[in-house]
Amino acid sequence: MLDRNDLDWIGEAVEVVLQLQGQPWRVAFAAFDALPIHKRNLMALRSGLARVVGGGGKLTAMARRVRAVVLGPPALDGDARAVRIASAAAQLGVADHEIDTLLFMDLPGERRIVLAHGRPNELEVAAYANVALIQHALRRAHRVTLWLWDDDGTLLRAALSRGLLVTASHDPDTGATMLEIVGPLALFQRTAVYGRALGQLVPLLSASPRFALELETTHWRSRLESRRESPVLLPLAPIDRRGTYEPTKLARALERYDPTLQIVIGPSPILTTASILCPDLEVVHHGERWSIELVGFWTMEHLAKRLAAYANAGVLRVLFCIDEDRGCADDDAAAVFAANVVRYTRRIDPAEVVAKIASAKKLTPS
Q1: With 60 labelled, which of 192, 272, 295, 341 sits at a CA distance of 20 to 30 A?
Q2: How many CB atoms lie within 10 A of CB 287?
Q3: Structural contact between residues 147 and 211, judged by C-beta atoms closer than 8 angstroms
């Protein structure tokens, strides 16, 4: 991880960026390679600078427009090229000499260095570089364990809302909330998509005053700890509204379909000695209370553990809404857990949820 001891060389890199304003980023990247810094940290530096400087996403649409107008059959001589560039410039309303710059300006190395907000701050660059370092390591993990002290549930809700394969419990040895998360490399399908979803938890870590993060693979184990007296340098945690977005959308759809339903969004966690369960909705249908959990990435083993955990907590009326596109196994979960599963693609059908609740019986997992 980067800390205040790294600010000197980060400052050197920032000065390089200042001197090269107006030139393509690839020129700055080449200058960074001359710094006596590990390649992993240089990768994180580039990511941190991109996050602090910003502006890259605004260029994509214009670059595509320019390419659509300019590119075509090869212009084999200078005169033909000049005519085509002049025609494209007139059509797009820009100067002829700007066309070459605009053609590929959406590529990271070809974008011009523009510091719209002034000189980047070394601490901010280092903080976002640390986010990139942790995310890179997470994508290579088989298992991730996160301990949280004084936790308000933000990280658990964030993990569940992103569909991660997570099991939460109270660790009696440390007094912390422990999240055990399946790593991307433990899956057989959708590892890249899952890794990106897992990486979205990293910016939220700074919301916890104290945490410990342990990554395991078949060859190595790494542990990162952040305490009040020695915090890890991370940017301020953003407000995460994703945790209630999908449950709220489903609750509104259910209320429109059946106004007699009593629905609670984000009910209180269900605590047992072995686990912490966070259903997304609690629905009362004809006097019977059901817990509904929106499941993103899933495997048969994960669904079986979740169902058993609810049964151990004495909650037998539970319904899982599983996204068919995010299954990480070839098994058919609907055939095994038919009474407890509603399958969906893109949108959950409220009529199917109500029908499943109405017809389902209490089941105890075998």
Answers
A1: 192
A2: 6
A3: yes
Amino acid symbol at 161: S
Q: Distance (Å, rounded) from C-alpha 192 to C-alpha 16?
A: 33
- Multiple choice CATH, 242-359, 3.40.1350.10, 3.30.1160.10, 3.55.40.20, 2.130.10.10: 3.40.1350.10
Q: Bridge-partner residues for 216, per DSSP?
A: 143, 221
The answer to whether 362 and 317 are in contact (CB under 8 A) is: yes
Coil/strand/helix, residue 87: helix
Q: What is the pLDDT of residues 139-185, one digit of tens each?
A: 999 999 999 988 778 888 889 888 899 999 888 888 889 999 999 99
Query: E-strand spans in 136-267?
Result: 143-149, 166-171, 176-182, 210-216, 221-226, 262-265
30-34, 140-144, 227-231: range with lowest mean pLDDT:
227-231
Q: In what order do the strands lie in the sheet with 221-226?
A: 221-226, 210-216, 143-149, 176-182, 166-171, 276-277, 270-271
Cβ contact 233:126 at 8 Å: yes
| pLDDT tens digits, 114-144 | 888 889 999 999 999 999 999 999 999 999 9
Quote the pTM value: 0.76
Cα(270)–Cα(309) distance, integer angstroms: 10
CATH pick for 139-226 out of 3.30.70, 1.20.1070, 3.40.1350, 3.40.50? 3.30.70
Q: How far apart are CA 40 and CA 43, in angstroms?
A: 5
